[in-house]
Design a protein that fits this description.
4 copies of one chain form a homotetramer. Chain A is an alpha/beta fold. Chain A has 2 domains: 219 residues, Rossmann fold (3-Layer(aba) Sandwich); 158 residues, Phosphofructokinase domain (Rossmann fold), CATH 3.40.50. In chain A, 39% of the residues lie in helices and 14% in strands. The longest helix of chain A has 20 residues. Chain A is elongated and about 70 Å long. Chain A starts with 25 loop residues before the first helix and ends in an 11-residue tail after the last helix. At the B-D interface, helix 2, helix 6, helix 7, helix 12 and helix 14 of B face helix 2, helix 6, helix 7, helix 12 and helix 14 of D.
């Protein structure tokens, strides 16, 4: 964030910019820093970097603002709605020191549990004046509702979101934290598939990767591993006839091949037509479908598939160094944003500059791979995929 | 092998010991080194270290014996029975130089294809006088049959096996190559499961590991990761009631837990009662059974499982340094053994000294974990498992 | 490349799609693709990603343009000035297939050997019409001279540079390939230093990192490892008195500390006053100076240093997945640039869009860390460095 | 340890074997378990696995014997001689849970500080009845002296050593913990040297490895990396003339080469003739000597060296999975040994069975590589070293 130096210059006022928040501007806030009580919560599934964010937020509050009351809310929104069942953890400079070196979330991530009114009650009861929400678009939309509920009650609380999506499908911002790490691990697994496929006659390695709506992980991992012959993403519909032709051509040329497929790809072939309790479409398993289809297709000619579904292995790895730098930037800027009194906003990089945007904007959709983009066409080229699978036609 | 210096001292005779072979003793062989044509074949599924063995054999033949005609038979026994469909690759000092740094087998591993008579024909036709068989007990038994067929024809060929089993279930020898590497990778995956389980309320990570008949991989990986709370192996039958009690007790104490289960464990709970075309029992999927059972058991209390089946990821990793040293020893000693004229034998370490044994002995059974052994009881202790799951009662 | 045709050598004109270069436009070029002969050369020291670039260039030429004559010039400019002593290697789709998985350069990187006239002779003699120069600012300036010499001779050759600097000190472009990989490995080594320092009473780990003129590697690695207490870079002069005070304060607080220092930092303390044969200043060894100074300073109180100089270890690692993606983009865009007839230009990302710029611009200086930038101030904050070491005063 | 099941069967008596100890046999001990207070101390330099040992000892005491008073003595013997300056840390099941996943020693390793009488005073004062000493031959000899001093005072304390040597030079036992990990990391660094050397014309990579008196690390790492052309160890004297001839021959054949040299090798070429304060010979730096000698030798022909000294990087890595298993075995057996009342002994594996031996025996010398052993000759063969460098003549 360009304004990073500001917190050190208390004479600067932020009236105009500071108008979102329910708290006064940062200059005034300084006087009351002793009363600041902060909390951080991680919602949804695991994603690399959660501990980096938790640590970054804690460290910045501790060292830059002298805040000593920092709570790690456990079990996502559940811990805010019902802190008795899910008691928070005190976070200190000391107990977050090493956490960025391992995967997961020391405060446990969880889905569901959102209840704006109960949460407002608990924020008030616990005296929390600064709240950091780490989670996906659903979490940030809930954050927006919480911000509105808080404003209605005239609750003095800064609510700042840090969007999280291992799929990198958050709109408006450049990329999500943890995404590069997921791509790195995914590309490592793709190379496992390469070894399996190429150590066998007419072997086909298939790796199913995350990406319900957006194929960023599959696309980047395929480009990064640079040994993939077919990449399938939700944004590009393909005919199985074309897939099989490409498989045959590739096997004829190289004797083995590797496929990276996003979980949301090819739903036209595997659609379940069902929805779960919350109204979300239940996706068909494209990985298993591909495995079965190709095994059947290849059997006469002696080929076979090796199918890998590494989802949990990817989600749980420690963050990579470069990705950690991004987490630190986001965490710091989230803290600076909150401490200057902004609320109802999310932080993220736009054109590589960390900015804030109203949380409701983050929940307006999913970012998608554009089939005409140089990223996807570069991936198509890297994979030597034919025009029929390129999404251009 | 104690006798490692011997090939350099041509005056030593090896009559008594050398009596197995169809070739004369090593001393005579030296005179005919120019005519030696060697071949190496990798059978069965992938296992870390195949490339190390291929390289070790090639390098030792090349540098120590000056052999220049070395064939990599492709696709396992298929490449010996039908070299026209699966043409062999020429192996040279140059083209094996880097292969030990990556997983898989550059000459492709494959199952089936054994036909002793056709293979004898082809050995004769190709002029192969030294043959290295890398594969499991089935492969080595076939090696024994090949040795007998060759002897009947008075074929001048040394057939030396290097037993392979990622499960480490080869009888008589200390351990198989690739096993330590598999354990290392498996324990890494177990730590992924730990991250998932511990970043969630009442999370249970389940990792299914290889081990149809023997639980060595699961046992060692559980001990090595040192974060496992329950290890299940084929050699120890347990009641699901006891498993569920242990799960409840562990979750009550730690709020999360990790399970490592060998694929052949708990077959009494999942038995299919079916056999495949070759008469092998089709195993039930204990991993999925555990996942489903525990999900159902935990649902009322809010817990859930994270199930990982990393089989292909483990098989395909590059060999670890210490394991590579073992491969080099085996490869060298296999070459020395063959070049001295032994045949129908396998090499492996016994009490840490590389020895040779008749191949037919290798095929007499599977090595198993002994429930009373300090290895298993040490694993039980590491996991804090109760007596009911320890196999002692 | 979105920015097709935007930044360009002003004196050249672009007609339909590609009229700028010394070659005819791309449309025409297509007709003559069979006559295209390409070459790639890597100059200067090692940097992660060289093999990715070599592979990317080869693959793009091969698959997208059908070029089959691609030479890997060995030993940098030496191989162009004197191809008889340093014969080139033929690059094919096949022999570059795996190279991106390992560090180094398969065509060997080397310094010196530039002779514009000889090189023009050899380009002509070998029939090379497309040349890719991978190297630092010196290499690109030489590339500019070569372009001028070629133009004088009316040589039909496209000369396209891909700037390389493990220090990330190339002006104008966002970042150099290999830089993120270097940061990742450097931060791993910093964690080794942390282990040493913290497993000892009053231990101080010191890691010297690359960065003669610019502190990007040290700054990013310190931020990424997030365990560093003092980061020193060439752009920020500090007094040893302030350094020692910070060391004492940190040891008093934590009992151990970690220092990351760029090789060009603190030259005011270690200046040699000498220049080498080529007129470059010979730098004093700030790492050894810090080690000795701190050992002396700490001895009375029982402390000690652990000094690590990991330079060669960092330079030689395989590229990270995300960095490889950048290499692929650069390589592809370099090929598209060259094949459309541009020459005398370099490719690189500006605001994350790959563009081309005249090579002579690349050689006009070194990019530096700005002490007031949020990157450096964020690093200062991450390290908890006092104002006196922050470069702000 | 074969006797692993014993602690669970209190009816077994251990009279004869149990006679060393000052404590009665284990059966009686059980009655007094509540009064057991244990301590563990790590002496000397860092070595992978210290945290595994600390954790293993703590976990076994906690779960198998119900001991709840476990101290981590800080700063080696200093913390026993002067616990006021180096206060111990309480170890619990909880605070050792993750420590085996990172390098170093959470209780800090340190040299010196041994004073048998002061230590006996402090053991008495702190009520420590079980003491685990992790350290090299010097530490274990001090342990023997401490045992004698304690016996003289009739102090009820079990003193059990776990020998530590990253060089693997402990006599009598098969191998030391941490050694395999050191070999693994060393072989990784050797591959860095390979990349440097082979990406340059006539490049020579030199890696200096630990091994003052014994070349096990260099020998095993050279065999494991399997890309080394020359390995030099203290046990084999070589003439520089022969070294240079081998360098020339290797460069002529391959154009690059890699050297692994133990720090204690070739002292005849670099001897300082000096001794330090404690009477130990100060070794000359063979790594720098080789670098300088080869640079000079190669300059005329255009070659150069790349010298890497990775000592601290190797010492500080986390333990490998297989090595951790060994640590767990040692820790468990050390605890069982101590709890059964043995004292003045060390534990370690002999022919792969964990045994105990009187500590004074451990201090009687250093284990060395035998030049005629198959390990060294296998290494010579792997490196393609000529007879003159093989140690056989």
């Amino acid at each position: 964030m360009i304004a990073i130096g500001i917190p050190r210059s208390p004479e600067i006022e932020l009236k105009a910019e500071g108008s979102y928040g329910s708290l006064p501007c940062w200059a005034c806030l300084l006087l009351e820093l002793r009363t600041v009580k902060a909390a951080v919560v991680t919602c949804g599934g695991l994603c690399p970097g959660l501990n980096s964010i938790i640590r970054g937020v804690t460290k910045c509050l501790w060292h830059e603002y002298g805040v000593r009351e920092i709570l790690g809310i456990t079990a996502g929104y559940n811990g805010l709605s019902d802190p008795d069942s899910h008691p928070p953890i005190k976070l200190t400079e000391e107990n977050v020191r090493d956490i960025h070196m391992k995967g997961g979330s020391i405060i446990k991530a969880a889905r569901g549990g959102f209840d704006a009114e109960k949460i407002c009650d608990n924020l008030q009861r616990l005296g929390i004046t600064v709240l950091f929400l780490v989670g996906g678009d659903g979490t940030q939309f809930a954050g927006h509702l919480l911000y509105e509920a808080a404003r209605k009650r005239r609750l003095d609380v800064s609510i700042v979101g840090i969007p999280k999506s291992i799929d990198n499908d958050v709109v408006l911002f450049d990329r999500t934290f943890g995404f590069e790490t997921a791509v790195a691990k995914a590309s490592e697994v793709i190379r496992n598939a390469l070894v399996e496929a190429s150590s066998c006659d007419r072997g086909v390695g298939i790796v199913k990767l995350m990406g319900r709506d957006s194929g960023f992980v599959a696309m980047h991992a395929a480009t990064a591993a640079d040994v993939v012959d077919l990449c399938m993403i939700p944004e590009v519909n393909v005919k199985m006839k074309d897939v099989l032709e490409h498989v045959d051509a590739t096997l004829a040329r190289k004797k083995y091949m590797v496929i990276a497929v996003a979980e949301g790809a090819g739903q036209e072939h595997v659609s379940t037509g069902k929805k779960d309790d919350t109204g979300h479409t239940i996706y068909g398993d494209i990985g298993v479908f591909l495995k079965d289809t190709l095994n059947k297709h290849l059997k006469p000619s002696g080929g076979r598939t090796f199918y890998i579904d590494p989802s949990y292995i990817i989600r749980s790895v420690p963050i990579t160094p470069n990705d950690h730098i991004y987490c630190v930037r986001l965490a710091n800027d989230a803290v600076h944003t909150a401490m200057r009194g902004y609320t109802g906003v999310c932080v993220g990089a736009m054109h590589n500059i960390v900015c804030m945007l109203p949380s409701r904007l983050i929940a307006t959709g999913k970012k998608k791979v554009r089939p005409h983009s140089s990223s996807w066409q570069g991936c198509v080229q890297t994979c030597n995929m034919p025009a029929a699978l390129s999404g251009l036609f």
